[in-house]
Amino acid sequence: MSLPAAPYGRMLTAMATAFAADGSVDLAGTAAIADHLLRHGHDGVVVSGTTGESPTTTVPEDGEILRAVKDAVGERGTVVAGIGTNSTAHSVELALQAEKVGVDAVLLVAPYYNKPGPAGILHHFTEVARATDLPVMLYDVPGRTGQAIPASVYEQARLLDTVTSVKHATGDPTATIALRELGYDVYSGDDGLLLGYLAHGACGLVSVVGHAAGEQLREVIARFDADEPQAALAAFTALVPAMTAMMGVANYGATTAKAALQLLGVLDNRNVRGPLVALDEVEVAALRESLEKAQLL
């Protein structure tokens, strides 16, 4: 069965942001990450999401990061800018900045921590979407926001011309069916549930494991799209050790992504900003072993 059209490409990764030893943004290192991803199976990148440590970067830094990535990617792929915060005014400011840089779309997570009701979530989405002409990809990740986007909000948000896609990370691939019926393009936001999302109508993946396995994840998607489910499953199964190592441990996300990039030689460090703490040597050794088992090193 053929997968539905993917507006930003099938294989994207929510990329890490590189930092120098003093904690400042390393723009050259960040550009190197983007280049690495585009050279290894990616159709595009998502910048300044959670894996990009966006809660710890300033608006000026976000602009510099976005410009560096956009320059590095050029015409080779798409760039989606993470603009989601728990302040509507702040998200509007980031959206306007992203529009000036010239990205392909923005990623807008449901407001976290302050936990607005459905009316507040819809208000947030509406105000940000109407601030620019950029396409909006909603991001549903209740494990980080404290609540899932309600069905009623999905229904009403889809009436906004630019709200057209969803990065879905609720742990429920079956929800893709209802979202597709509303007209959304759905991207799996969970590496481990990729096949489930594709089977229910998703068009692609926004990954974290893609930092180390872009070409391999692209192959999984391609085999599924070619109606070769057993080959897709075999390719996916080979990646399970890497997925477990990068996403199934307590200290995961930007920390494991950067350690993987260091092991691959893309970065010469694994610096993160607090409150994250870089992987220690024992954790790096375990990650190395898992990536080797998945034949990624």
Automatic annotation (TrEMBL):
Record-annotated site: Part of a proton relay during catalysis: T50, Y113
Binding residue positions for pyruvate: T51, V206
Cleaved signal peptide residues: 1-20
Pfam families in UniProt: DHDPS
Keywords: Amino-acid biosynthesis, Cytoplasm, Diaminopimelate biosynthesis, Lyase, Lysine biosynthesis, Schiff base, Signal
Active site feature: Y139, K167
Gene Ontology CC: cytosol
GO BP terms in the entry: diaminopimelate biosynthetic process; lysine biosynthetic process via diaminopimelate
PROSITE patterns tied to this protein: DHDPS_1, DHDPS_2
EC number: 4.3.3.7
InterPro entries the UniProt entry points to: Aldolase_TIM, DapA, DapA-like, Schiff_base-form_aldolases_AS, Schiff_base-form_aldolases_CS
Reaction catalyzed: L-aspartate 4-semialdehyde + pyruvate = (2S,4S)-4-hydroxy-2,3,4,5-tetrahydrodipicolinate + H2O + H(+)
Main location per the UniProt record: cytoplasm
Localization in the cell: Cytoplasm
Molecular-function annotations in GO: 4-hydroxy-tetrahydrodipicolinate synthase activity
Description of how the protein assembles with itself and partners: Homotetramer; dimer of dimers.
Known function: Catalyzes the condensation of (S)-aspartate-beta-semialdehyde [(S)-ASA] and pyruvate to 4-hydroxy-tetrahydrodipicolinate (HTPA).
Family in the record: Belongs to the DapA family.
HAMAP family: DapA
Protein name: 4-hydroxy-tetrahydrodipicolinate synthase
Gene that specifies this protein: dapA
